[in-house]
Amino acid sequence: MTRNADIAMVYAQHVAELQQRSARALERGGFDHLVVPSGTSHYQVFDDRDYPYAVNPQFKAWAPLTRNPGSWLVFTPGEKPRLIYLQPFDYWHVVPQAPNGWWVDAFDIVVIRTPDEAKQHLPRDVARCAILGEPQSALGEYVPNNPAPVVQYLEYHRAFKTPYEIGMMREASRIGVRAHRAAEAAFRAGLGEFDIHLAYCAAARQDANELPYHNIVALNEHGAVLHYTELDRETPTQRRSFLIDAGASFAGYASDITRTYAHDTAGEFQSLIDAVDAAQQRMCAQVRAGTDYKRIHLDAHLALAGVLRDVGISRLSPEAALETGVSSVFFPHGIGHGIGLQVHDVAGFAESDRGGTIAKPDGHPYLRLTRVLEPGMVVTIEPGIYFADLLLDGLRQGPHADAVDWDRIEQFRPFGGIRIEDDVVCTGDAPINLTREAYAEAG
Ligand code: GLY
Ligand code: MN
Ligand code: MN
Q1: How far is the CA of 339 from the centre of ligand 2 (A)?
Q2: Based on the domain organization, do 190 and 338 belong to the same domain?
Q3: What is the tens place of the pLDDT at every residue in 278-336?
Q4: End residue of a domain, out of 156, 190, 211
Q5: Taking every annotated instance into account, which residue ranges of this chain make up the domain Xaa-Pro dipeptidase N-terminal (predicted)?
Q6: Residue 382 known to bind ligand
Q7: Which residue from 86, 108, 197, 308 has the fewest beta carbons nearer than 10 Å?
Q8: Model's pTM, two decimal places?
Q9: In this structure, what CATH number is given to the domain that contains residue 390?
């Protein structure tokens, strides 16, 4: 989606969809106006430096504006959405440009010069407003009230991406894949974690504040730490393996991609990566309308337990490995999550747009999504096999210590772990794998 005319068309449809959803959400909550502050910059404690600004996701859902603190979105059903756009007189900072681009026609835009001026353009009757935001966004009597029925409705339906949103996520995937390729080249060239991270940022043209989450750049044993974000400055003398979990942002949307590489591409660790990769692609094929995401998670345990048995680590059948919790020693996180405006998108457990929670399967506390898949949902599929000391110690000391071959584990431990992660769109038909699609294009 490169032509502005194409974007404008799908964007108009996206905003129309948000208007419909918002009208229904307001009805549920008994309000007349939806009011969404973009958020503010906050000082750090006892300091005059700001935390990095993070836009309110409820705001960026409407427009590709991620660097506009002090702005507001107002929607009253039957009226064109209003964007109160702060463009301060400020010679200390670069101020946001005057609104321009393919998105501006969707709004009545009012430019204000101070945050306070927004009050003149917000709905008069504050009691009739559903104001969605963080407490620091309060402006006079306009204090975020985040009514549950409104938030629940919007968050539940946000799982269903519009074609515009899929287009933005496709771009975020392309950027991520471009940067992943640069990171692999940096690894092959012998760079350490910090320098690989910089190579990634340079290729993505995004720095740590713009990326959708902290890069995980892990060499060797560090791959066993699920959220390893240390970025070692030293370059290790031995390079055995490289796990990188890193995404990119585009117009406020995220991609979330993980790849694992072996230094020795003819060795056993490469074979294990290949086995996880093949299993991962079968899991991605399960992203179909009507499939319970919990099923994909449990099937992933069975598939990975099969890989562990084939490689001589587990002595159990896949079913027994799942039953006894042995598979969880090596695969201790969920198979994935919804993704969109937030890397871990909201409402993963929502039973309906009126609230309620769909429980996680017993013994699987880290699964982030328990809903049945429907067209428009975008989810990650991220199986992994890790050799994490803490979890291995637990297995060794527990009743299932004989279920595994410890010598075999010892051979793999120096490689840390494997994770392969793609972002996959559920459609009415075959799934669309945004990550693999981007690799195929770039390839
Ligand atoms: N990058 C965090 C995750 O994969 O969920
Ligand atoms: Mn993920
Ligand atoms: Mn990830």
Answers
A1: 8
A2: yes
A3: 999 999 999 999 999 999 999 999 999 999 999 999 999 999 999 999 999 999 999 99
A4: 156
A5: 10-156
A6: yes
A7: 108
A8: 0.97
A9: 3.90.230.10
